[in-house]
């Protein structure tokens, strides 16, 4: 989707360890640290406290989980615009179950599983349409984004369904060694995602399919089926994020997850995953998500008007990407 | 009946006002009403459409034509154009942006189709036959006055505000009323964040707000639906050193006020039934009838709804009009 | 525009003083991150000559000509044209100086028509509006002179065969008023007839004083068309001013490789009568492309498919491999019939394919070599989906060593390998996998002489170890020299089959032509 | 003695005219006609009247103009997420000028030109960042989308600025041979876009750059500069659309154009322009825009529940693409 303008020959820098994946991450870390420095300078204690760190992490956790799934999708050469909507649909479906009387005696894990199942199902439908229907991912998932939102509205009657399932809320709101369960969930998904991406055949296939689908097919990889799974995975993470959202806000509503997709994609790409596929990084994604969360936090601490925040945010995104690119490998391309 | 009455109706459960046993509700000639509103991207707006549809359903002589809910004024304009082409009998319009829809509403009026303007006001008086408004400035004043009453004697008290969609004029009206009322008792707004009327937006904005302000005395939150998220953030942060005033008046919030199980002490009503009122008025206008208890002829040009403060003392009175956000 | 047909053109001015170089490149150095592609190359080109550039894969030939074309900036060095030092900061500058290039990687735009591609970058226009009629007229004219009136200027280039695209590239180079035309392996995708046609064009050019820099791995071509040779090795000029016609082959190979390589086909031990049939193709057809293709390959046998470009040989391989859905017929491996249209079924049954387009069909270019080698096998190296990277690397390293793939590191991106080494990596993929049937489509395209003989020996060794091999090549001597049994394919039909020793190049060409006429 | 390297004669006859650009358009026209048939069946007179046709065209005109610019961007291998925001910014800037007292004696064309200039400037900034900064288009234009919205809010103080410039309003609202000026503007932009795309070197180069940037560079095209122009063009169409929006609504506000980008991209892609670049069609884009506008219209006529409309829209988008693909050339790929 993006024109890779050929790097001007002059830009070929000396190679070093900086030019590997590590180098790409260094640029990101630098951006993150710069942001933190700004936070400390402008916010002092209020920024640097442990509480605030937890606030940032909690803030990052929901989009973070979505971003892990998105990293697989984008690496496989696709895109998923439906994650926000599907998240919303999952919260509505799960909360409908929880607020229906007949569900009184169901264990809360059933509610959780419903959320995950709804997300996964939506993802698999995306996958079917893209892999077997050969509809371009942007359009297929855009359609799902619109349709899932409508379905969520129909199911909820456009109402906000507040969940008061104690077992569930106790669980999601708990702390564990001083860290909120929501943050742990993000950590678990990120770590699992990292292993899946870097240590399993699934991850390897994802990179291969995104790098060269035709070559992968001729090497005997079932490309279509793999894409199906990748979108299913993204749906699953949307379901998980939905459950987290439900825990965080106690509310199932069709407006949950509204406009998350662009932020998630931005975080993934800022993190260093190539939008054209074939290269992805879970670590980069996590840092990308943290950058966005920290940005919001620093802005609020500084009491910037929303409008000014937006202008600043636009500028910072571009600058962050430019910094990252300075550090990133010139060597991979010419 | 409905919100314009002084007495809250008895009926429980449905947010849609009950058809009162008055002459006005007797079936008459068929009325085709075109209805267009912004996308249900937050609970209040969802309740708006829902109660409009429910109310229309209660009349056998009303045929409601719902246009796709949209935040695109371009689309909304074309919907009104379509209603004009169709020659509907009346149009109930909650414009995404009042100014932007004024022109086409005027065109409808010129074509002899009465337009009932709801919630967000047109920029010209000629664009609507009747207007149903909440009292946004009044909401801010009510909330500010209540907070003044509670905190009046502590001039250095920290007051925070969680606003709705900042770019809407009505948000600015609310904030202005709030500020004006506070300054009357020597207080000001120490921290202000804006969310977007959604639960998630409220949660995010409030988490950050709480982080930025280690000690707070009072919070006013503009909208009870985003309030679900505001409350969740407060509970997540384990904070309770302040009290909170809500806005709009959802059932959920009223239940909290009644149970006294949270920082919520009060909320300010902003009726989610105003589009339902619009439907009723449209029908009356077409049937050329008077409004309920009024003696004067014809449906009034403007109906501004009341923004009372709901507290533990009077919550029972208002439970029935609280919207299930 | 250059008139390629007028052999009778008046001798050009340059021809008066043939010893004054038209172009001279001196001490060209080019560093890439992690690689020194050129390390001081000298080259001088006379007007009206065909100057051949020889060298192994990765020697730096393409890099050198890209420097000349303004596509790369040299780290240091001088370029002198007509006695004046010039700078070529971008491709436009090269074209302005009269240097036009036909690149090794096809450089056409698939979505544009033939005419649009020919005039890309120097469109015939009036006030920004394209003069389409004029462009089409001169494109048609140019294609006619190039001997390809059948290519319509209106045709979308993406729908042309590789050879067709090559012709378009050539037409584009000719459309510039060039004094030097550089051709980087133009014959790689062409068959014998095409190559002769190309030579006719080249002669037309040189007769007008245009200098041609010609790169090819096929020595017999260089003998036929070349005037002088420059040899590159490891980014340095190691041989210059060598007469193309007379320099002994052994000498050239020694200069290129630094050793004495036997440039010959391995001996055929002969397939034992009782060797079992491994691959059995019966009445295979792909509607509109080929039909009634039947043949058997026994264990240890190499079957070659000879024919012209466009005959449908690649499609035969791809179809029996399941990459295309056959419309009729059957394919069986060791007696077991394969599901149609399923590559993974074919792979599971023990078939491997090294496809025609290494880069677009074979490799995941940005992935490391070892992952490309294990791509068809990594699921087996894994346990329960869990990869054992150490085992994976070890398996890849073993193949790299066995194939003498260079450079030997398995962690570099496949993109950075030279053509021959990319081919070896693909072979390595199937060696790791261990297959009973190996399908090779143009295995030596763009591969240097040294690597070629290694590949031949390797394929023969595989066959000797019991693999059934099918080879498609547009170089008839290659098919004849390597295969035990040859099928001649023309227009989607097998027109002849014979043991390799019973048939020669002329016979094959005759058969192909008859098939075409029929 | 040379062989035939082009198999065209056989292939051509087999695939017929359906497999060319015309064939791709046929699928679209079929989808449009199907939709119209549904409109006539369900709406009768209400749908088929001339008034209603004009309503559809007026609705289509603003996004239509954006879509023409977007067709160039996508064909060039890029994407422009900022068009909606930039439209909003243009309306705000122009209306600020118009509502300032000192501007009283300025001719209304100055306001119009301001709108166009603001759009073009934003587009050129996108182009600079993408072409020369080498920031991937998705991210660069996302940043612009956020920043332009923020800037528009700051300039307008988040107020809706009503423009009462008579000369301007008289012009934009007029009819010309029974067709509204807004629609004429769309027609003019579409026709100019068609010529630019199909009959000029600019158009050819746009396709070339999107199809193969490296080959284009080697052929002597200044790829970076060309991309700069392409994004500038998209900014210009956003400016034009902004002026049209201002005429239609009389209101300059930062919420104008909110979330237009996805709809515009969807229309362009449904129209047959390849999201990966290298192939585009202005005619397809126009039909794509009409499909979306007609959809909204048919929904309103049919009084579908609001949520159900969304579900239906999602399904219809996928079906439309599938229909289009059935008709589109199978022969281009294998
Ligand atoms: N963009 C690049 N980045 C890094 N290394 C490169 C790049 N391009 C070429 N090289 C390296 O430079 C060397 C010369 O490559 P080049 O393509 O010029 O060889 P060649 O002689 O044309 O080979 P072949 O016969 O295979 O075409 C090789 O080692 C190659 O790997
Ligand atoms: N995508 C396509 N669309 C139309 N025709 C095609 C396509 N691909 C291949 N063909 C045609 O199919 C025939 C066989 O193609 P191909 O060039 O692969 O044959 P081949 O015998 O393998 O030749 P080569 O020596 O080039 O490998 C040719 O006439 C070619 O033009
Ligand atoms: O959308 C707004 C709603 O959320 C708020 O609570 O009241 C006014 C409405 O316009
Ligand atoms: Mg080369
Ligand atoms: Mg072939």
UniProtKB/TrEMBL annotation, chains A, D:
Transmembrane annotation, as ranges: 25-44, 56-79, 106-128, 135-156, 176-197, 227-246, 282-300
GO molecular function, one term: transmembrane transporter activity
One term under GO cellular component: plasma membrane
Signal peptide range: none
Superkingdom field: Bacteria
Chief site of localization: membrane
Protein topology in the membrane: Multi-pass membrane protein
Subcellular location: Cell membrane
Keywords, sorted A to Z: Cell membrane, Membrane, Transmembrane, Transmembrane helix
Name of the protein in its database record: Ribose transport system permease protein
Species in which this protein is naturally found: Krasilnikoviella flava
TrEMBL record, chain C:
GO MF term set: ATP binding; ATP hydrolysis activity
Domain of life: Bacteria
Boundaries of every ABC transporter domain copy: 23-259, 256-516
Its membrane topology: Peripheral membrane protein
Location of this chain's protein in the cell: Cell membrane
Major localisation: membrane
InterPro entries from the UniProt entry: AAA+_ATPase, ABC_carbohydrate_import_ATPase, ABC_transporter-like_ATP-bd, ABC_transporter-like_CS, P-loop_NTPase
Entries under SMART domains matching the protein: AAA (SM00382)
Keyword hit for Nucleotide-binding: yes
Protein name, entry field: Ribose transport system ATP-binding protein
Keywords, in A-Z order: ATP-binding, Cell membrane, Membrane, Nucleotide-binding, Repeat, Translocase, Transport
GO cellular component terms given for this protein: plasma membrane
């Amino acid at each position: 989707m993006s024109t890779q303008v050929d790097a001007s020959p002059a830009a070929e820098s000396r190679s070093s360890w900086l030019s590997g994946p590590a180098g790409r991450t260094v640029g990101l870390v630098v951006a993150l640290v710069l942001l933190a420095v700004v936070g400390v300078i402008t916010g002092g204690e209020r920024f640097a406290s442990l509480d605030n760190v937890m606030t940032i992490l909690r803030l990052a956790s929901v989009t973070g989980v979505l971003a892990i799934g998105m990293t697989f999708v984008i690496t496989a050469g696709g895109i998923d615009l439906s994650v926000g909507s599907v998240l919303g649909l999952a919260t509505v479906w799960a909360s409908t179950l929880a607020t229906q009387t007949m569900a009184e005696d169901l264990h809360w894990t059933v509610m959780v599983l419903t959320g995950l199942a709804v997300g996964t199902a939506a993802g698999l439908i995306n996958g079917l349409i893209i892999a077997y229907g050969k509809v371009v991912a942007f359009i297929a998932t855009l359609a799902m984004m619109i349709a899932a939102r409508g379905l969520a509205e129909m199911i909820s009657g456009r109402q906000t369904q507040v969940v008061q399932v104690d077992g569930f809320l106790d669980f999601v709101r708990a702390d564990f060694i001083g860290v909120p369960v929501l943050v742990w969930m993000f950590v678990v998904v990120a770590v699992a995602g990292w292993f899946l991406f870097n240590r399993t055949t699934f991850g390897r296939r994802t990179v291969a399919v995104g790098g060269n689908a035709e070559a992968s097919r001729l090497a005997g990889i079932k490309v279509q089926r793999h894409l199906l799974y990748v979108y299913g995975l993204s749906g699953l993470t949307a379901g998980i994020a939905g459950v987290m959202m439900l825990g965080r806000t106690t509310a199932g509503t069709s407006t949950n997850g509204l406009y998350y997709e662009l932020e998630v994609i931005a975080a993934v790409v800022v993190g260093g995953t190539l939008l054209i596929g074939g290269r992805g990084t879970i670590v980069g994604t996590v840092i990308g998500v943290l950058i966005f969360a920290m940005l919001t936090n620093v802005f609020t601490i500084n009491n910037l008007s929303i409008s000014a925040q937006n202008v600043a945010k636009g500028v910072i995104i571009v600058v962050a990407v430019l910094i990252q690119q300075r550090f990133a490998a010139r060597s991979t391309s010419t | 009946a409905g919100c314009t009455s002084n007495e809250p109706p008895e009926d429980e459960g449905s947010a849609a006002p009950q058809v009162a046993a008055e002459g006005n509700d007797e079936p008459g000639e068929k009325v085709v009403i075109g209805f267009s509103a912004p996308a249900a991207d937050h609970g209040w707006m969802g309740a708006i459409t829902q109660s409009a549809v429910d109310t229309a359903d209660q009349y056998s002589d009303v045929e409601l034509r719902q246009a796709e809910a949209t935040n695109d004024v371009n689309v909304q304009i074309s919907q009104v154009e379509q209603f004009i082409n169709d020659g509907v009998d009346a149009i109930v319009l909650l414009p995404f942006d009042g100014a932007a829809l004024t022109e086409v509403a005027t065109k409808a009026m010129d074509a002899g189709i009465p337009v009932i303007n709801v919630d967000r006001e047109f920029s010209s008086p000629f664009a609507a036959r009747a207007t149903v408004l909440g009292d946004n400035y009044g909401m801010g004043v009510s909330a500010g006055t209540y907070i003044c009453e509670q905190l009046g004697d502590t001039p250095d008290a920290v007051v925070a505000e969680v606003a709705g969609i900042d770019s809407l004029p009505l948000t600015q009206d609310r904030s202005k009323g709030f500020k004006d009322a506070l300054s009357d008792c020597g207080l000001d707004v120490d921290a202000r964040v804006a969310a977007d009327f959604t639960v998630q937006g409220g949660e995010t904005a409030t988490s950050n707000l709480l982080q930025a302000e280690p000690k707070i005395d009072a919070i006013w939150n503009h909208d009870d639906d985003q309030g679900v998220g505001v409350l969740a953030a407060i509970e997540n942060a384990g904070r309770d050193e302040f009290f909170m005033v809500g806005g709009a008046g959802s059932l959920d919030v009223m239940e909290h006020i009644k149970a006294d199980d949270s920082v919520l002490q009060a909320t300010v009503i902003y009726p989610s039934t105003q589009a339902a009122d619009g439907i009723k008025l449209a029908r009356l206008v077409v049937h050329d009838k008077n409004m309920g208890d009024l003696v004067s002829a014809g449906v009034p040009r403007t109906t501004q709804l009341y923004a009372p403060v709901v507290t533990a003392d009077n919550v029972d009175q208002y439970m029935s009009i609280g919207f299930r956000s | 525009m250059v008139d390629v047909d007028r052999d009778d053109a008046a001798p050009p001015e340059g021809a008066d003083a043939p010893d004054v170089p038209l172009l001279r490149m001196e001490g060209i150095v080019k560093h890439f991150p992690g690689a020194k592609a050129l390390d001081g190359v000298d080259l001088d080109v006379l007007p009206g000559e065909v100057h051949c550039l020889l060298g192994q894969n990765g020697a730096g030939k393409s890099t050198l000509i890209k420097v000349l074309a303004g596509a790369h900036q040299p780290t240091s060095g001088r370029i002198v044209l007509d006695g004046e030092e010039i700078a070529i900061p971008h491709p436009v500058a090269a074209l302005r100086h009269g240097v036009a290039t036909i690149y090794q990687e096809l450089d056409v735009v698939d979505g544009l028509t033939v005419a649009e591609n020919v005039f890309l970058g120097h469109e015939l226009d009036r006030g920004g509006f394209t003069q389409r009629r004029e462009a089409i007229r001169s494109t048609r004219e140019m294609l006619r002179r190039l001997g390809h009136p059948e290519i319509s200027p209106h045709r979308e280039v993406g729908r042309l065969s590789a050879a067709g695209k090559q012709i378009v590239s050539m037409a584009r180079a000719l459309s510039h008023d060039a004094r030097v035309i550089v051709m980087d392996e133009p014959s790689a995708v062409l068959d014998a007839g095409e190559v002769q046609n190309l030579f006719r064009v080249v002669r037309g050019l040189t007769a007008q004083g245009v200098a041609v820099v010609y790169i090819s791995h096929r020595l017999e071509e260089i003998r036929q068309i070349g005037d002088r040779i420059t040899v590159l090795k490891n980014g340095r000029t190691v041989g210059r001013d060598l007469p193309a016609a007379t320099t002994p082959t052994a000498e050239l190979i020694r200069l290129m490789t630094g050793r004495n390589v036997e440039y010959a086909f391995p001996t055929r031990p002969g397939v034992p009568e009782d060797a079992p049939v491994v691959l059995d193709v019966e009445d295979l057809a792909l509607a509109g492309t080929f039909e009634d293709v039947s043949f058997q390959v026994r264990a240890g046998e190499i079957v070659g498919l000879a024919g012209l470009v466009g005959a449908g040989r690649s499609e035969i391989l791809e179809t029996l491999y399941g990459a295309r859905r056959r419309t009729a017929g059957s394919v069986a491996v060791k007696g077991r019939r394969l599901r149609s249209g399923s590559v993974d079924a074919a792979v599971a049954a023990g078939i491997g394919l090294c496809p025609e387009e290494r880069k677009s069909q074979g490799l995941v270019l940005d992935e490391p070599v070892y992952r490309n080698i294990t791509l068809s096998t990594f699921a087996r190296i894994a346990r329960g989906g869990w990869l054992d990277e150490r085992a994976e690397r070890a398996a890849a390293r073993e193949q790299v060593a066995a194939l003498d793939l260079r450079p030997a590191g398995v962690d570099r991106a496949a993109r950075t390998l030279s053509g021959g080494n990319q081919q070896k990596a693909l072979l390595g993929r199937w060696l790791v996998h261990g297959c009973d049937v190996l399908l090779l489509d143009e295995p030596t395209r763009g591969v240097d002489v040294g690597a070629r003989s290694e590949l031949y020996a390797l394929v023969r060794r595989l066959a000797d170890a019991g693999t059934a091999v099918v080879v498609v090549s547009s170089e008839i001597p290659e098919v004849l020299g390597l295969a035990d049994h040859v099928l001649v394919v023309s227009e989607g039909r097998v027109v002849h089959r014979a043991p390799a020793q019973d048939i020669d190049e002329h016979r094959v060409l005759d058969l192909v032509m008859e098939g075409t006429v029929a």
